[in-house]
Design a protein that fits this description.
Layout: H1 4-8, H2 11-34, H3 42-45, E1 48-53, E2 59-63, H4 64-72, E3 84-85, E4 92-96, H5 99-119
Antiparallel strand pairs: 1-2, 1-4, 3-4
Length: 130
């Protein structure tokens, strides 16, 4: 039986360790670097978004997950022309600063609500329009 010192001096052993390290690095980059770009990735939902209220000119920061939950509470009455309700005035004038993100998010949430209503075995929710 060879001693550990003799095994460590062999080139194949070093290349094996290097190969394992490279595979581990590639797995880590794939798992945490490239994967998780979806709309429900926890890291994305924890990002802070800036909401601008057009009636008062104030800006509010909140986590994206909380913002999307506020949009989902509207259900079928979700309209891209009506924003988040301003706590100071009670009017729906709060929009994301990034307009394309606002439109994309509203369209995605509306499409999900429509898909859910179509797949539901109980039909539409009361007050739903379709």
């Amino acid at each position: 039986m060879q001693s550990i010192r003799e095994i460590l001096q062999k080139p194949w052993f070093g290349w094996s360790i290097a190969g394992i390290a490279i595979l581990f690095a590639l797995f880590t980059v794939y798992r945490y670097g490239f994967a998780g770009d979806g709309p429900y990735d926890p890291r994305r939902l924890q990002q802070e978004v800036v909401i601008h209220f057009t009636d008062t000119g104030e800006d509010l920061k909140m986590p994206r997950g909380q913002f999307e939950a506020m949009l989902r509470e509207r259900g079928k009455s979700l309209n891209p022309n009506q924003g988040i309700t301003n706590p100071a005035t009670g009017k729906p004038t709060g929009f994301l600063v990034a307009k394309h993100e606002w439109e994309e998010t509203v369209q995605r949430i509306k499409a999900e609500a429509d898909s859910t209503a179509q797949l539901s075995p109980w039909g539409q929710a009361p007050g739903g329009s379709k």
